[in-house]
Amino acid sequence: MQKTAVVLLLAFSATTFALDNGLMRTPPMGWLAWERFRCDIDCDNDPKNCISESLFKDMADRLAEDGWRELGYVYVNIDDCWSSKQRDAQGRLQPDPKRFPGGIANLARYVHDRGLKLGIYGDLGTYTCGGYPGTTLDKIEIDAQTFADWGIDMLKLDGCYSNATDQEMGYPLMTKALNATGRPIGYSCSWPAYQGGLPPAVNYTLLGEICNLWRNYGDIQDSWDSVLNIVDWFTDHQDILQPAAGPGQWNDPDMLIIGDYGLSTDQSRSQMALWAIMAAPLFMSNDLRTLNSGARAILQNKGAIAINQDPLGIQGRRLIKEKSGIDVFWRPLSNGASALVFFSRRTDMPYRYQTSLKALNYTPGTYKLYDVFLEKSLPEVKDATDFVVSVNPTGVVMWYVYPSTKQEDVEPVHLKSKLTRSMFLQKDRKPYSPDIL
Ligand SMILES: *[C@@H]1O[C@H](CO)[C@@H](O)[C@H](O)[C@H]1NC(C)=O
Ligand SMILES: *[C@@H]1O[C@H](CO)[C@@H](O)[C@H](O)[C@H]1NC(C)=O
Ligand SMILES: *[C@@H]1O[C@H](CO)[C@@H](O)[C@H](O)[C@H]1NC(C)=O
Prior knowledge:
Elements: H1 2-13, E1 29-32, H2 34-37, H3 53-65, H4 68-71, E2 75-77, H5 103-113, E3 117-123, H6 140-150, E4 154-158, H7 164-181, E5 186-189, H8 191-194, H9 204-210, E6 213-215, H10 224-236, H11 238-241, E7 250-252, H12 265-277, E8 282-284, H13 293-299, H14 302-308, E9 317-321, E10 326-332, E11 338-344, E12 351-355, E13 366-371, E14 376-382, E15 387-391, E16 396-403, H15 407-410, H16 413-416
Parallel strand pairs: 1-2, 1-8, 2-3, 3-4, 4-5, 5-6, 6-7
Antiparallel strand pairs: 9-10, 10-11, 11-16, 12-15, 13-14, 13-16
Bound molecules: 2-acetamido-2-deoxy-beta-D-glucopyranose (3 copies).
């Protein structure tokens, strides 16, 4: 019952009007410089890691050549500290001439030639967070036009050095200005993160109308504490946040730090699984040139990506928070499928968690199970049959769950109601179906 109510609510929220630029019908995927490379501008002493056109070309090469692009990781995104400290004679932003000698338009061409998209960073305020020129209200139109002229595909608009009044004016104005350029540009708004992320200060209906994604909460850092803190904040407020997401409009818990220094293998799987359940944008911030094979396998896990990219675009929820330290997350997927994540908050040893699909609100029937990280199918289970999952400390077990009974018989109520599934499905995306099932 609880599940049905949730899905119904979300089915309706998906009919509200998303930002009408046709972009990001599933969560955007790619690479973003900030968490790993920050504001390193010391190209004299640290040429491989400084914010420069060669860093973004390197990452574009890796995305195109190492199998990322085919999996959907197509955005190469610049963050802060790319620009010159001065605007040009016409009042336009310009890149730092020493670090981006070819200019942004050339970099965009390089990225586009590899079948990728280029994102850039701005800040609605007098300065960016790093102290570079900001986009004050009077500069919104010229900056939108400059980005479009360069061939930019996505803009992250930060909120340092602005106040609530300017943000209320500025974020919607940028939506209009981007639209007026005629170039489809994905729009990431940091607005809610500057207003505490919750109503009444934040209006999620409005955000869905003006932004493709939005940062609700603080920046991620390279540590498990940071990941856990973010997951807890998003989960504690899921009743507010979850209905806000849908095709073209996503909550953004910030970058994937898998492949950096802070997470163990289990914790890396946890971040991937929970970001997939949350329908979160998947922007890696790591060094794709030196990524180890373990991190690569997690980030390139096809099951986790397919769950993240499910065409219904319904964000998942935490169903249960057990006293034992096991949290169970659930996300409804297309074709009557769903994803489950068993997440352990424990720090002692693998925990044997016993439950059944019935206890997790599944309707009567027999279900096929596929373990996403083991990459293999498990024996079918009946809804009432108890099973045990062994969950590592700070780790997850993630399942793709699929009814074995004929689909019509188990189709969730919401798909039969006023809204038919075909209204949600994008024509060019096939729902996930592991070969094994
Ligand atoms: C601009 O907005 C209109 C109407 O909302 C929409 O049809 C059009 O696709 C948008 N164009 C761009 C480039 O975003
Ligand atoms: C917000 O900042 C602008 C300058 O960017 C200023 O003109 C305005 O008075 C400020 N508003 C408030 C309420 O502080
Ligand atoms: C939130 O934004 C929507 C859409 O712009 C608007 O209709 C609604 O009145 C706003 N809600 C509040 C509480 O301001």
